[in-house]
């Protein structure tokens, strides 16, 4: 198998003791490429360090995760915009809106997201979008800014079928991860209605491990279980699911095979 984990944070401190082993397990399992979205100013250095250690099987993105948008967000965005000038980034991410825990910085989140949407259009890069408790605002902003140049992934999609249709109509792919293996995940009920060429796989490691690893620290090797679950639900082989989603990811992020 040849799989691509389109969203993983293996530079996170939770992997500080066994990061090399985690990487090797991923490669041994067939996860041949891991895409690393940034979180905030503090994660740029460890993310780039990991990419430097494993340049052949990792790629990096740049963005400010919505939960990390604080009073100083404009200074952080200026730092990230300068970083993008290096030309090594394959996407703008992880960006978006999140009003699940706190709406204190709602205005700042909206401004930061729109700024990063403009980056994506100017640079022709795909987005890795995080959206939680913000579907209405998210679609309004995407509709406002979509001029044919916005594309990317709705990361960790767990919404309704109507939400899926809205994102697909806006030109986005859906990133499916470990949550799809949970029995209470509503996406399972309409998975067969999602065009296969609009699905990419991810882990969001170290979070949201799939069954049978649920409750453990997630890692890219576990994505094989997610691919197997989705393949069974769509009545295709795991190898075919790997081929389809890998092709999707290669095209979306413009990665040479």
Task: Give a written overview of the molecule.
This protein is an alpha/beta fold and 257 residues long. The chain has a single domain, classed as Metal-dependent hydrolases (TIM Barrel), CATH 3.20.20. It is built from nine helices and eight strands. It has an eight-stranded parallel sheet with strand order 1-2-3-4-5-6-7-8. Helix 6 links the parallel strand 6 and strand 7. Helix 3 packs parallel to helix 4 and helix 8 packs across helix 9. The longest helix has 18 residues. The chain is globular, with a radius of gyration of 17 Å.
List the helices and strands and how they pair.
Elements: E1 3-5, H1 19-29, E2 31-36, H2 44-53, E3 58-62, H3 73-84, E4 89-98, H4 106-123, E5 127-132, H5 135-145, E6 152-154, H6 161-169, E7 172-176, H7 187-190, E8 199-201, H8 223-234, H9 238-252
Parallel strand pairs: 1-2, 2-3, 3-4, 4-5, 5-6, 6-7, 7-8
Helix pairs in contact: 3-4, 8-9
Integer tally of domains: 1
Count the DSSP helices.
Answer: 9
**Structural class based on helices, strands and sheet pairing:** alpha/beta
Strand order of the largest sheet: 1-2-3-4-5-6-7-8
The largest sheet, given as strand count, sense and whether it forms a barrel, is: 8 strands, parallel
The CATH H-level homologous superfamily: Metal-dependent hydrolases
Form type: globular
The overall pLDDT, averaged over residues, is 97
- Helix % is 25-40%
> Order of SSEs, N→C?
EHEHEHEHEHEHEHEHH
